[in-house]
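dumping this here so i dont lose it
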């Protein structure tokens, strides 16, 4: 039997988030639907040029938070400003400055790709000539120039998502809000979308607010994260800070460890079980190596601790809070 012990390289440090004026400031932000506190007094700030991630299980309050930022639903209590403007008073001005990619596809299925962009450009009162130029430019950006005349219903899920992103960029917003931009897409398509978003940030310094339940997406795209559950903040920080605050850098993961108890370890090793796996965390691989001889090699992996570890540690193995029907 071959050994399958993987030693992955230590994660590289992320560059510090851009220190700049706040684009979004929330204090005690609250949204109540009937008896349900969908968002329950949360505080956060998003800085200019930053990619800010909202993580949390279904029903945590991510979409509701984003809809309040986008001035699509009023707050119940608290304070929220976008670009220095109070969402309660300046909804229209704020909406004109931000781009929104909502969780559900809401493209017009009867129109062509190009028409979808042109019709939307009218909402933002873009002059016709400008709308045409932007449409050509954005279709090239999302790699869909060839599909300009295709009807939306002929597009793949990934193309629809890319078109949603292009549409949100028509009026050159300074802030782009993306609600689960890659949910349900296959890994290759997700990678393409990440690349586009990274390019956008590099080229335009756009501020991004992204909700996701993919930890690799959050780790790759986001400078800072807010983990929420049942409308409350559970943890906040950069991906590396969150990992470092909960775990040391390396993890020894033993899948299907069965009913065997965790091995006893030194104070420098943190041990826990999760979904039938044993996990040990330590600052160096050396502290974990001795444990490996107690386990069968094929199911034992030495790897960097990651955001998934953090998320599962905070939120638990069943990241589902029960969905109720939305009456929008
Ligand atoms: N329009 C709505 N009417 C009533 N309840 C809602 C509405 N939108 C969301 N909720 C409830 O608020 C909570 C948070 O939902 P949501 O913000 O969609 O969470 P997430 O995006 O993190 O999955 C859930 O319990 C959800 O059922
Ligand atoms: Mg949602």
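and the seq i came up w/
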């Amino acid at each position: 039997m071959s050994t399958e012990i993987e030693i992955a390289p230590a994660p590289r440090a992320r560059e510090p988030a851009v220190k700049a004026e706040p684009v979004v400031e929330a204090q005690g932000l609250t949204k109540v639907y009937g008896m349900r506190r969908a968002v329950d007094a949360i505080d956060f700030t998003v800085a200019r040029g930053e990619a800010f991630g909202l993580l949390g299980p279904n029903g945590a309050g991510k979409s509701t938070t984003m809809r309040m930022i986008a001035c699509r639903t009023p707050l119940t209590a608290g304070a929220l400003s976008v670009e220095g403007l109070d969402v309660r008073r300046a909804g229209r001005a704020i909406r004109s400055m931000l781009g929104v990619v909502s969780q559900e596809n809401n493209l017009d299925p009867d129109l062509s790709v190009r028409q979808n962009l042109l019709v939307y450009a009218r909402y933002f009162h873009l002059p016709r000539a400008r709308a045409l130029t932007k449409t050509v430019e954005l279709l090239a950006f999302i790699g869909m120039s060839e599909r300009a005349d295709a009807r939306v219903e002929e597009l793949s899920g990934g193309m629809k998502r890319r078109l949603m992103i292009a549409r949100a960029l028509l009026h050159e917003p300074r802030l782009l809000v993306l609600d689960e931009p890659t949910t349900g897409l296959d890994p290759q398509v997700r990678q393409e979308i990440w690349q586009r978003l990274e390019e956008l940030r590099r080229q335009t310094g756009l501020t991004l607010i992204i909700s996701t339940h993919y930890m690799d997406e959050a780790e790759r795209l986001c400078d800072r994260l807010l983990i929420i559950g049942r409308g409350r903040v559970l943890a906040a920080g950069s991906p590396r800070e969150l990992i470092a605050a909960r775990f040391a850098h390396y993890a020894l993961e033993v899948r299907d460890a069965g009913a065997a108890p965790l091995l006893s370890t030194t104070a420098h090793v943190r041990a826990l079980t999760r979904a039938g796996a044993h996990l040990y965390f330590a600052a160096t691989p050396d502290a974990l190596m001795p444990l490996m001889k107690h386990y069968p090699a094929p199911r034992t992996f030495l790897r960097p601790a990651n955001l998934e570890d953090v998320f599962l540690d905070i939120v638990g193995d069943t990241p589902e809070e029960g969905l109720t029907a939305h009456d929008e």
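Residues 248-304 form one domain.
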